[in-house]
């Protein structure tokens, strides 16, 4: 298959290029394809003529989106709309990646694909608008919600916590729950999904829920870091954007594609960090 990836320089984009290396992959960063530019998107699709487009590009700074609403909507809503439109007019399917943050976290149980979204932040609203545009404009779509992505070389919560760690204790919220997802596991699941032709909305995230505290404590232990991790309420960290307190994802969609447990993801993450450190 010939696959065009947008957002190719991001954490997921890089994992996708690796997982799909047995295909002909063009992983384009923002410098080559700015998804907010319809003419550029159309030209890229006309030039590449891919069998499928995978959009891994997004405005992912949740707090910054609160004060950069127009840019968040440009990248997270207009961008996927441009891709869906351009792909549909060439009868090309699209994968679009979205987020657990479309939910408000009040269900008190894991969210499945048919639960009703209710975004709490500008980021979440812009991502939901992107999902809706893709569904509306390209019937051959996979809209994939994932959560709490991490990879050894990515900008993610674990790496930010270990960067501020050093010797001082790190304080982490123990009252926010989600589905930590190792980006290479998501990329492998997407590689399987695009073979199915079963268009629709999917939740693809690491199995088992965790609090942010549990995730960081387990990751630090796996990395061999001695830094103390202290559980605290999230109210200790006033943030611009509201986040769901419980957005664990589950799936009732078919075909069912299950990712490994998030603890397996942390084990592989730690191994990748150790390998990189030895180089
Ligand atoms: N990270 C998470 O915890 C998480 C959780 C749930 C869902 N997701 C979703 O998963 C997907 C992948 O996230 P990620 O963690 O890989 O994010 P990431 O590392 O921030 O990567 C996003 C990429 O998109 C690029 N980009 C931004 N604006 C663009 C534009 N106008 N045109 C083309 N590229 C553009 C960014 O480039 P610059 O660096 O130049 O801005 C960056 O390389 C996103 O859809 C995100 O919403 C992520």
> How would you characterize the largest beta sheet?
6 strands, parallel
* Cα distance spanning the termini: 33 Å
Strand content: 15-25%
User: What is the string of SSEs from the N terminus onward?
Assistant: EHEHEHHEHEEHEEEHEEHEH
Overall pLDDT, averaged? 96
And the CATH topology?
Rossmann fold
Helix content: 40-55%
CATH architecture: 3-Layer(aba) Sandwich
Instruction: Outline the low-pLDDT stretches.
Output: none
How many strand elements?
12
Notable characteristics:
279 residues, Rossmann fold, six-stranded parallel β-sheet, 40% helix, 16% strand, binds NADP nicotinamide-adenine-dinucleotide phosphate
Tell me about this structure:
The protein has a single domain, classed as 3-Layer(aba) Sandwich (Rossmann fold). Helix content is 40%, strand content 16%. The protein contains nine helices and twelve strands. Helix 5 links the parallel strand 4 and strand 5. Bound molecules: NADP nicotinamide-adenine-dinucleotide phosphate. NADP nicotinamide-adenine-dinucleotide phosphate (NAP) binds next to helix 1, helix 4 and strand 4. NADP nicotinamide-adenine-dinucleotide phosphate binds next to helix 1, helix 4 and strand 4.
